[in-house]
Design brief:
With 208 residues, the protein is an alpha/beta fold. 23% of the residues lie in helices and 29% in strands.
């Protein structure tokens, strides 16, 4: 499996394209802006077919490019945490209303929960940043796509709608203690780190 980072939208949120070099099937994790030309060009240049768009959570800086993406690739399946489905339809929950954008999506979506598999990625419930935040763990590649749950030397906000600090720190303890330390963490806004590094940081600050 290969992985490539794209930075999308006004907040330069990380979107991760993963693909299998044998099948040429690709997944996109998060899609936070409509500046998708580099992604479309990369797919064409490498003969890749985008099969799935998978959201770590429902904030606008992670979902804002969905409609434009589906205009170009209408067959892509859309996945989001069961508890965050309403974020796709509610500008107040997804925060686009505060930006004057009023993002809503009424199309088909596949809701996921703890333990579900999307290809080789296992769904991990990590609420706290939002009620339905998910991480996606690939045991073969030892990578975790963490969205805004865990950053390099930091962690997600919990003062936004449905956020909860106590629950977030429980989620951070869960992923740091239950998954291999060498796991590479691909977050929503920072550079790549590992669970082992972030466990030390969180423990030193008395957070887990």
């Amino acid at each position: 499996m290969k992985i490539k980072t794209f930075y999308l939208g006004e907040m330069m949120s990380c979107a991760y394209l993963t693909w299998d070099e044998d099948t040429k099937e690709a997944f996109l994790f998060d899609c936070g802006g409509e500046d998708l030309e580099n992604i479309f060009a990369f797919l064409r240049a490498n003969g890749l077919t985008l099969k799935k768009v998978i959201f770590t959570h429902g904030h606008h800086d992670h979902i804002g490019g969905l409609e434009k993406l589906l205009q170009h690739i209408p067959d892509a399946e859309v996945y989001i945490g069961e508890e965050d489905k309403e974020f796709l339809r509610d500008p107040n929950l997804n925060l686009s209303g505060f930006l004057g954008k009023r993002f809503t999506y009424e199309g088909k979506v596949k809701a996921v929960k703890e333990g579900d598999m999307i290809g080789d990625f296992q769904v991990v419930d990590t609420p706290g940043h939002t009620v339905g935040s998910k991480c996606y763990y690939n045991s073969k590649e030892k990578i975790m796509i963490s969205g805004d749950t865990l950053f390099r030397r930091s962690y997600g906000r919990y003062d936004l709608p449905t956020g909860n600090g106590e629950v977030l720190f429980e989620s951070l303890g869960k992923i740091c203690n239950e998954y291999p330390g060498e796991t590479k963490v691909y977050s929503g806004h920072t550079e790549v780190t590992t669970l082992a590094e972030e466990k030390v940081f969180l423990q030193m600050n008395g957070l887990i």
